[in-house]
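User: Okay, second chain of the day. Same drill as before: sequence in, structure tokens out.
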Amino acid sequence: MDGFILYSISTVTVLGEPLSPGTPHDLSEEEIMRTPTIKPTIAAAAIVVAAGALAAGLALKPAIAGPTGPNPDLSVTCTSGSPCQTYKNKGLGAGIEGINTKNNSSFTSGVVGSAGTFGNGVNGFAGTSGNGVNGTGGNTGVSGTGGTWGVFGFTNTSFATGVEGQSDNGDGVVGFSVCCNGVDADSNSGNGLVAIGGSNGVSIFAVGGTHDDIVGSAGWGGGVTAVRGDNGGDNGSDGDAAEFYGSYIGVIARSLAGSGPGFPIVATDQNGNNLMWVDGAGDIFYHGSLNNFLRTRDGNVATSFAPTATAPTIEDNGTAQLVGGVATVQLDATFAKSIDLHRVYQVMLTPDGDTKGLYIASKSPTGFVVREVQGGHNSIAFDYHIYAPSIGQAGTRMTEMSPAQAASYAPHAAIVKLPAAAVRPKIKLLHK
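Assistant: Same drill. Structure tokens below.
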């Protein structure tokens, strides 16, 4: 019987292992013959095989499988809820191996799986520490085409990975779509997509054609963020969460228009305390001082500080000439159109020469008149500085409030801590 795999015609038990009709076995002939209950079955099978061999002129080949594996020319059909064919390997080798030697064509496959409308073309299962499907290729490790998903990965083990892609010199995972999402990641409670880059690699590299490279969309609820970046660093000075570069605009932040609940930009510390924010009306609020650096004539840099005021104003200044004790100053046309006329603007005067004093004789929306006191007739220069309320801010002044009132006035950025490195998905190297 050398060269054939025998099939029993009834279910028997050999060495504690059930042997069903039509199922290949990997037991030795000695182990089988030591089992008395199977000897009649073996004898009957031997008679059937011998008769078939004689009828075929001793040219019989295994109908289902031989010592070299499955018959590639045979199509097996069944209507069972279990697999039509099962190949068991108790050693370190593969249960099934598909090889295609047509290496000059991109349309050949070693293993092909096909399913109906709701089935899976290839379904792989593994134990606690194994991989359901493991593909290694010179170009692509695993390539899938499907009506819904080309490749679908699922796991119900904590911190395990549904789909993982690795590459020594190329891309770990590549997704492409003509119309829709190249890669779609979703999770009920964990991370839909986790990308981990090496010391010299990039975790996610996205290249877009005429559309967006990466789009993040989040549901409703406090603390839900479409795109979140976390980089704890190792010394507090090298952990950058996000970096953006654009040849035209680096970052665009949008929210609801108006001074309502929308805040396109909010900056907080790690405890959620607001540091700076911009509301939907474009108003900027910040805690601390507004500082900037100025260049000096000798090439150094000096720190400077922005002044603060009790009311929102626009200002202008200049120098005018007093002739015969009188001068008329015209406001800059654009400055004049920016003044809120519900409140009179103020003018501060500084004479540039000896005088008994100067005063503002009259004001109008377009200018003001300056005279020397006591009817003086000096002709000297003087400087002026104008403070005027900006349009819509005539009655606005600083307001004192309690910390609780200030907190209700400010945005509330929820603090969401990302999982620590110890509980993030552990990616093991497959091909090192």
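The chain has four helices and 15 strands.

User: Thanks, on to the next one.
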